[in-house]
């Protein structure tokens, strides 16, 4: 049976992860879960973000389920660079997968978009670009200060994530891949992405392709999100576009993500897109749907496509039966979802 | 009287610029306008993008009115880098000003946002960041290819645009400035922006401030655009966020922009955010509102705040009186706007 590592984290992390585990246990009984204490709380208590020994232990698991890490009391970058991004890079999670669906029962913000009409997935590059950490500064705190951030892009890194996007498109009905970049300004990286995209597209004559600049894509995600099927893009563009996609499909409260190492050489990591939401933590009112959808991605990655589909269907049932305005209880939602998934 | 340079450009550029000039002539009779032939058409005819002699002539004007340049037949980057960005950099247009309002009469895409509720302006940095052109590639067209893009940020460049944003906020009712960056990942540039922002904020105790990561801001522009007053951000983030702001307020067809050198050492440049729209060019059906709103920014920059306000009010009248579904004629809209503006 699969062995997963669980990082519940801070704020509402433990609450929503609790429900995700309920659902995993329901559809895949016998999965072995080990908890790891990482995040703002541990950082404050011990000064540690991600000890090497923990990194090594995590590497021995089949997948990682993460709730949320972070707290306003931790300086920006400490947990992001030291924990989340460190795991993405150390475990070569080059596919940052972010599906967005406008579920029946969910009131999205767009007047002219009906539930069921949006069903897209962003395949965001996860190990390169401006996230490489290649920046610096000079003359800090003087009028002469200069600060740089460098986007690093390799043919290796770009081509492999584009291949993943095409492989995913082939398993979907519309079989369409949109490349998003900013080739008219970022001419070097843009050209690399465009040439790699063309080369992979040529091997997939059964997949429809298009290209959009990131500003246009940001706009079309608002005016016509229906037009997208699979979107492949760079790390930072993907960060921004997936939050827009989440916003137009009901908010990050429903958005799941997977940081995937497709070859399985390292564990993949699954986490809701929402943060630790300290304001509502501990009250039992956080919506666990994003965590449970992330668990569905995890279950799929472990090779159990049927069980994953049952979890996704359970979420659809749950969302379709909600009455707007009625407050939810985290535990009850988790119980219902586990029940639907095995029914 | 002021002397302006007019670059009508390609596609619908000449049509919409024609109406903007009508309106300028109506409210500021006697403005001297000189036309310059730049854009895709000239590039195809002569191979020239922006001859040095033209750059020098443009520098002698009080402002530049630009329609739209570009055509799918020109390789990506040629006109963007060679013309638009060259002008922004050569004329040190460090304030890229992009107001967004949801005008009464305009049906925006958001179900819960009413006309009149959104009135924000993005102050986008215009001369630094990833637009600096500091990138390159190695081992091109081999599996070992690497491509870089470098974001360059100086205290000089960051502080001056933040100062401009605070000055604008002071002239507005809500007096609020939101800094948008990605300090948790782009730690060097992010820290420079955050420290410069804090320093300028400390000099403006009458202005409310907040900070948001770019992904969160992209989301909130969709879910709560009402919350923004003045947004100050870096060049690339501004590019993306202003297209989202345009999308939620009725589309880039209504979006105006100014590339401003506030000190007036060089001419500022004003252009609609939309492109050359070759598909509808020459048919007399393009909406000139974005060009006319850009002209209003130009008129304001020339020091005629009252005339600018009359043009903006004319646009409000025009938009409020449109019947949805009734096709418009470019010339007729221009005539009406000129009429309203002098009434
Ligand atoms: C927390 C942060 C480092 C992260 C990112 O920028 O990737 C987050 O925004 C996300 O999208 O997962
Ligand atoms: C055409 C392009 C260079 C430009 C930009 O990226 O600034 C455009 O998108 C804009 O927003 O004015």
UniProtKB/TrEMBL annotation, chains A, B:
Cofactor annotation: Mg(2+); Mn(2+)
UniProt xrefs under InterPro entries: ICDH/IPMDH, IsoCit/isopropylmalate_DH_CS, IsoPropMal-DH-like_dom
Molecular function per GO: magnesium ion binding; NAD binding; oxidoreductase activity, acting on the CH-OH group of donors, NAD or NADP as acceptor
Coiled-coil intervals, chain numbering: none
Superkingdom of the organism of origin: Bacteria
Keyword set, alphabetical order: Manganese, Metal-binding, NAD, Oxidoreductase
Keyword NADP: no
Domain Isopropylmalate dehydrogenase-like: 3-337
Classification via PANTHER family: D-MALATE DEHYDROGENASE [DECARBOXYLATING]
Protein's UniProt name: 3-isopropylmalate dehydrogenase
